[in-house]
Amino acid sequence: MCLQSQGVKEKVERPIITSFSGRVLTTTQYLYGLNHWHGRPINVYLEQRRLWQKVLAGSWALWGIQEKVGGRRFLMVRRFVADSRKLIKDKDNLIGSLKPLKDILVKERVFIDDADSYLDFDIKQEIDKENPRVEIEVTQV
Predict the structure, then answer these.
(1) Conformational region of residue 42, where left means phi above 0, alpha means psi within -120 to 50, and beta covers everything else
(2) What is the pTM of this model?
(3) Which end of the chain is less enclosed by CB atoms within 10 A, N or C?
C-alpha cells in the first residue's frame, strides 16, 4: 500500500553538501532563524543541532582547538539565500540563528565557550539565486 495514496506525504531530505576552501567552510545546510524553534518543543531545536553536528563534525581540524590555540576567536557567518523572502529581517532572530552552530562548535572544542569573553561574531546575509549556502569562518582575534 502506498503512503501517498493515503494522503501521507513522504519527507524527502535534500542532500547536504559541505566543503572547505582555506579556512572557510561552505555548506548547503539551511540556517533557520530563531523563530523556527523558539517556543516549540525542544526536539525542533535538537533536530537543528543534530543537522549542524553532521556538517561541523571534525571542524576542530580546520580551525584548531581553542584551548591549545588560546585567545579570543571571531566567528563570521555569511548566509546566502535564493530570494528576498528567505532573508531573516529581524536582527535578534538573525543573531539567534547562530545558537546551534555555536553550541556545536563548543562541542567540537573550536570554542572554549560561546560566552562573549571568548568569542566575537557577525552574521551577514545576501541573495544568491544560483547558489544558496552558508559560509562559516573562524579566525583568531
Answers:
(1) alpha
(2) 0.86
(3) N
Q: What is the DSSP string of 22-48?
A: TTEEEE------GGGTTTS-HHHHHHH
Sign (positive or negative) of CA dihedral 121, 114, 134, 82: negative
Report strand pairing: 73-81 vs 119-127: parallel
H or E element in which residue 123 lies: strand 119-127
Q: Which three cell numbers stand for residue 141?
A: 582575534
| Tens-level pLDDT at each residue, the chain (141 residues) | 444 445 555 555 678 889 989 999 999 999 999 888 888 899 999 999 999 999 999 999 999 998 877 788 999 999 999 999 999 999 999 999 999 999 999 999 999 999 988 999 999 999 999 999 999 999 998
d(CA 119, CA 116): 5
Length of the chain: 141
How far is the C-alpha of 138 from the C-alpha of 64, rounded, in Å?
Answer: 9
